[in-house]
Every structure is written in structure tokens, then in C-alpha cells.
Design goal:
There is one protein chain. A 6-stranded mixed beta sheet has the order 2-1-3-6-4-5. The longest helix has 17 residues, at 102-118. It is built from 7 helices and 6 strands; from the N terminus they run ββαααβαβαβαβα. It has 206 residues and is α/β, with parallel strands linked by helices. It has 2 domains: 2-45 and 97-205, 3-Layer(aba) Sandwich (Ribosomal Protein L4, Chain: A), CATH 3.40.1370.10; 50-90, no CATH class.
Length: 206
């Protein structure tokens, strides 16, 4: 399929041929859900921890007489029923990450890209370069393309001016092609790819 290529520096437009095996699929929500769930689970630190009664610091002296109080026969204030006591069945440090086949991960990326094409939310830039790092100049060019909430993806070497200009703009993000992922693609309204990043994606996903 052919899509239009826009430029930040001028109104000149061209076209780019996209691989139907990557950008022309019928998006499947079940695959996208599996990949996003796998991604978010992998991000979790899993460092949550509560103390059990054996980990509470305090006196081990018996708090009351064994008989005559009319209450239960407690030995210390470490059980969970007392304020400051241990927690029963509380969370412990654990690894939330799961395994997902590499084929499903790459397929999920293809379906995410295809969903952007299908919803007319994919924009192709000839290059992500600016003559100056001024955010004001960058915004004036971006507004012409009607980009307010988008993920920009470029090749390995970012243009320094472009990288500095986009940092202060709310709703816009720039990531390396090596860091492209399903979750970031789907959570933004639009996806902006440069021509160089498309070539690298074709090599990676074919």
C-alpha cells in the first residue's frame, strides 16, 4: 500500500510504499491484549512487602496473666489483631514477568502498526530534523500537521535539535526504533514514523 509522506520543513509531499504483511493486517485485539499484558507485567517491580508477626520488633514478655483477664491467652503484641502487629498473608516480593513467544511479540507489533494504518492514525515523516532547537518553531510546524498527541519514532541517531525541541511538548514523545513497543504505540493517538525507521522496521519484522 502507498501512503503520503509529509515534511516538517516544507509542504512538499511524496509517497511511501508500505509492506502489507506488516501494515496491512486485520488487527486482532486478543493478540494486542496478550502483548500489552506481558509488557505491563514485566514492568512491575514486585518489591511490595509486609512484615509477618515473626518480623515485628518488640518485647516477648507476656502481656497479661494467663488466667483471670477474661480475654484470650496472648503472649505478645505481635499478632495481627493488635495495632502494630504483623500482617497475615500480606504481599511478598515476587517476579510478575511471564513468558511470551517471540513470534507473538513480533506479531503484536505488526497488529499495532496495522491498527494505526486502519484508523488513519499513521503519519510518515521524511526526516525528523530541525534547523534550531526552539520548541516554539517546532510547535508551529507540528500544528500544521494536526499532531497533538503522538509517538515519534526515529532511527538510532536522533537529530539533537529535534530531540531538544520535543522534550518540552506535552503529549508528544520521541523514542528510538529499538525501543518501539505495542503499549506505547496504542496509548498515543497518532504514530509518527520517519522513512529511515520504516526501513529498519522492515528488516526487523520480515
Amino acid at each position: 500500500m502507498k501512503v503520503n509522506v509529509v515534511s516538517l520543513s516544507s509542504d512538499k509531499k511524496s509517497s511511501q510504499e508500505l509492506n502489507d504483511e506488516i501494515y496491512g493486517l486485520d488487527p486482532r485485539s486478543d493478540i494486542l491484549h496478550r502483548v500489552v499484558t506481558w509488557q505491563l507485567a514485566k514492568r512491575r517491580s514486585g518489591t511490595h512487602k509486609t512484615k509477618e508477626r515473626g518480623e515485628i520488633k518488640g518485647s516477648t514478655k507476656k502481656i497479661m496473666n494467663q488466667k483471670g483477664s477474661g480475654g484470650a491467652r496472648h503472649s505478645t503484641r505481635k499478632p495481627n489483631i493488635f495495632r502494630g502487629g504483623g500482617v497475615v498473608f500480606g504481599p511478598k516480593p515476587r517476579d510478575y514477568s511471564t513468558k511470551l513467544p517471540k513470534k507473538i511479540r513480533s506479531l503484536g507489533l505488526k497488529h499495532a502498526l496495522s491498527s494505526k494504518v486502519k484508523n488513519d492514525e499513521l503519519i510518515i515523516l521524511d526526516e525528523a530534523k530541525l534547523s534550531s532547537p526552539k520548541t516554539k518553531d517546532f510547535l508551529s510546524k507540528v500544528k500544521k500537521l494536526k499532531i497533538e498527541n503522538a509517538l515519534f519514532i526515529d532511527s538510532d541517531d536522533f537529530d539533537k535539535n529535534f530531540e531538544l525541541a520535543i522534550k518540552n511538548v506535552k503529549g508528544l514523545e520521541l523514542i528510538n526504533i529499538k525501543g518501539i513497543n505495542v503499549y506505547d504505540i496504542l496509548r498515543k493517538e497518532k504514530l509518527v514514523l520517519t522513512k529511515s525507521s520504516i526501513d529498519m522496521l522492515n528488516e526487523r519484522l520480515q
